[in-house]
Design brief:
9 strands; 32% helix; globular; alpha/beta; Rossmann fold; two-stranded antiparallel sheet; 19% strand; binds S-adenosylmethionine
Length: 245
């Protein structure tokens, strides 16, 4: 018997994140990982770059004493986010908001323990957020999750960054959670995935090895992706429809 197939996986039972009703732009694996990490760390202070509806923010708020949430616009924020009493919203470009925030946190001797980077997804944007976040001098271990490490533009920034120049970074894994292909019906696009960076208060004594646990999977999919075709065959755009078939 032929059974109908659905490639979008949008009718899942409500196992993961059932406590969190606000629409959330992450995969099941990412949601489960974020909930578990935050439940383990229970951050004193957390920062989120990129709030959108407030999906990931509802989890940060639930597990942290205090959260700073940066977004260039509040327009998409769900009204239920107004109930998060431990969240301070900073509206503006993370390029300017983040350095000011990190300066303020250092001055007030607040203890940052968790950061989610999920704002500007261009290579320059991710590099800039990464650079600014890594200006922190950690008082306690700081865990940094970067969303969309499976997207070629984001991954290019995550790979290009010189982590060895920062003595407090002691762990970098680009495929802490593996991403997805055709995510949310975006044809031949690569999105999702978590990179994970950890900083420690003690300076590192040895060189850092950057890990790309799923590098082979990433490469295989990349050559089938729209990102590859766009980069190398952009001049053939009018004929792109042929590839879609
Ligand atoms: C993918 S959404 C975040 C989703 C959210 N973290 C979640 O999982 O539910 C990206 C957000 O980043 C914001 N953004 C884009 N560029 C930004 C920038 N330069 N500074 C601050 N926020 C930015 C967008 O407005 C958008 O709300």
């Amino acid at each position: 018997m032929n059974q109908p197939l659905n490639y979008s996986d949008n009718q899942e039972p409500n196992y993961i994140g059932h406590k969190y009703p606000i629409q959330w732009s992450m995969s099941r694996a990412e949601k489960a990982t974020l909930i578990e990490i935050l439940n383990y760390i229970k951050p004193t202070v957390a920062i989120e770059i990129g709030t959108y509806n407030g999906g990931s923010l509802q989890v940060l708020s639930d597990h942290s004493e205090k959260v700073y949430a940066i977004d260039i616009t509040p327009d998409h924020r769900d009204s239920r986010c107004d109930n998060f009493e431990n969240v301070t919203y900073l509206i503006g470009d993370s390029k300017t908001e983040l350095p000011k925030l990190i300066h303020k946190i250092a001055k007030n001797e607040e203890i940052i323990e968790f950061i989610l980077i999920d704002g500007d997804h261009s290579t320059e944007g991710v590099l800039r957020d990464l650079y600014n976040v890594l200006q922190i001098v950690p008082k306690k271990p700081v865990t940094i999750i970067l969303h969309d490490s499976f997207n070629p533009n984001c991954r290019a920034a995550m790979k290009a960054f010189d982590y060895n120049s920062n003595p407090y970074v002691n762990y970098v894994e680009l495929d802490y959670v593996t991403g997805a292909f055709n995510h949310d019906g975006l044809f031949r696009e690569m999105w999702g995935g978590f990179a994970c960076i950890q900083m420690q208060p003690d300076k590192r004594q040895v060189d850092l090895v950057i890990s790309e646990y799923q590098a082979k999977l990433y490469k295989i999919i990349y050559y089938k992706s729209k990102h590859f075709y766009k980069k190398f065959f952009g001049f053939l755009k009018p004929f792109y429809r042929i590839f879609k078939k």
